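Quick one: structure for this chain?
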Amino acid sequence: MAFLIILITCFVIILATSQPCQTPDDFVAATSPGHIIIGGLFAIHEKMLSSEDSPRRPQIQECVGFEISVFLQTLAMIHSIEMINNSTLLSGVKLGYEIYDTCTEVTVAMAATLRFLSKFNCSRETVEFKCDYSSYMPRVKAVIGSGYSEITMAVSRMLNLQLMPQVGYESTAEILSDKIRFPSFLRTVPSDFHQIKAMAHLIQKSGWNWIGIITTDDDYGRLALNTFIIQAEANNVCIAFKEVLPAFLSDNTIEVRINRTLKKIILEAQLLGVLKNVTFTDGWNSFHFDAHGDLNTGYDVVLWKEINGHMTVTKMAEYDLQNDVFIIPDQETKNEFRNLKQIQSKCSKECSPGQMKKTTRSQHICCYECENCPENHYTNQTDMPHCLLCNNKTHWAPVRSTMCFEKEVEYLNWNDSLAILLLILSLLGIIFVLVVGIIFTRNLNTPVVKSSGGLRVCYVILLCHFLNFASTSFFIGEPQDFTCKTRQTLFGVSFTLCISCILTKSLKILLAFSFDPKLQKFLKCLYRPILIIFTCTGIQVVICTLWLIFAAPTVEVNVSLPRVIILECEEGSILAFGTMLGYIAILAFICFIFAFKGRKLPENYNEAKFITFGMLIYFIAWITFIPIYATTFGKYVPAVEIIVILISNYGILCCTFIPKCYVIICKQEINTKSAFLKMIYSYSSHSVSSIALSPASLDSMSGNVTMTNPSSSGKSATWQKSKHLQAQAFAHICRENATSVSKTLPRKRISSI
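Got it. Here's what it folds into:
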């Protein structure tokens, strides 16, 4: 019986809505009286029948294209109201309804809305105009509908005059969440904002970035299109094309229509303020309207698949709009979800980590070329728009790198092959110094050792050489403040002391064998060995002290190289460093001059010649060092200075002590007192003969020798007397070790023995 009643009702409604509107009552699709009337707007027909005259005549036309899904929604509203009336929910209050078919047409919906706004207990055609509708009592208290967002917007703007509650069941346009424009609108479906966000999320999870959009030419479609474009651009998705179709399609232009049925039913019918605070459940989930009038529901993600020529729609997941996640029910569906990634929808192949996107001339950002990241840049994700810069101070990256690597800290390490070689050379130098010291100690009383200034002077020089070799170890290993300050100071002071001692030796040799009375007088006044050594060394100590006080060397972290960090000693002051080396060079030059003047001394006293060679080696080494040191960069800069120190140290050490060691070990027959005296006698005889034959020497000695005659016999007598006095003088040297010679010589002189 109930089924028959429903069929009859459906038949009546279909007949009523398919005929042209003759009277206002014909316009109503379904109605039922009650204490509270609820209005309904449903697009039961797809469109109005078009004719050539219809645009010219202001009348409601016949509707065509029956929609069974919307008709079922209308029945759902009627059924819900009848259930409420048959329950105790609203005791003593009966709900009525007045439902209209909008025919999917805005003008029809507006005509129905005018009847909703008519005054209570008055004719349905009476709508009063007021400036304030606060006390106005409309015949209908609330409206359900309508379906399409475009129609809903127009209806809602009219209902806003009386703030009549309107509950939409499928109007999803995002603009309807704006409570400034649509203050009385509520809906039981989420906003398109969440739907579009879910779609963008799904596209992103599928790995697509090159898609097309098909939308309808109405408010709903246009607003959804604009919102989706914004969401797509935020997710780096490009729109390959946009197609706008007519809003209403006939059955001949579409094969599949997704029909939505109203799932959520309004259980109460109260004023707008009450509706906004309504909370209800379906047995498992709780529903309520948010501040925008949107219901807290989500979406079903469905997959359209063609199987055996038939299109099927399968539910794959639920979209939780509050947490922005997809809820997948089972593993099989998860696998189906993953299969979406196999569908390629990209304009360009994705750029792998280590590459960046280089936009082409295309207007789409999804069409690009992949370019490798340059050195010291990286990318660690796919399709990154630009490469990230590494911290050049601490990290580096090769070309097409996916990460930054820590720079390796470098310095002249103890394990470095060059450092080991230099250390071996320094150790050999120290061993050589010790061997020379032992040899000189065992031959303390020999003429060779005595002619070198005695064991005390030799020990001081050897100690300086030892310290110079030892100072090279401070140039190797991880730089510390102590080693940076010690290495230059130790080398500078010890090398200056060595040069100062050699300077006194050069001065002593020149003084012993000089026959020029003016030069000998000057040298005799100048020769103060201890004072010279302390003064020369003290000046260098002052230079180094001021250096350490005002601009001391420190450890510097050099990050200018692309892949390594160089730990090095920064000298603090190039001026102080140059002053220290320049002062040593000045002393070496003075020593070189003195030694060069005494280069023709007797063989066993010919130390000056070897000192000259040693100073030349020093100058060559350090002159070469300056450009090399200035152009060398990296961890081997200290090695350059070590090499120069070793060359100059070995040069002076070998030139000073190897000839003497050779005489002591291999020429013992000439390392005797008699052999030295014989050589001195021979050299002195040659020197006095040169003086006697020199006109300048004769003039200088005219006041100290026997008067001579102009005759040749007088000259011969003078020569014989000088020869005799010379023999007596050197016999006295042999007995007394440096006493005065005969009065026939120009001046007294000091023997170097």
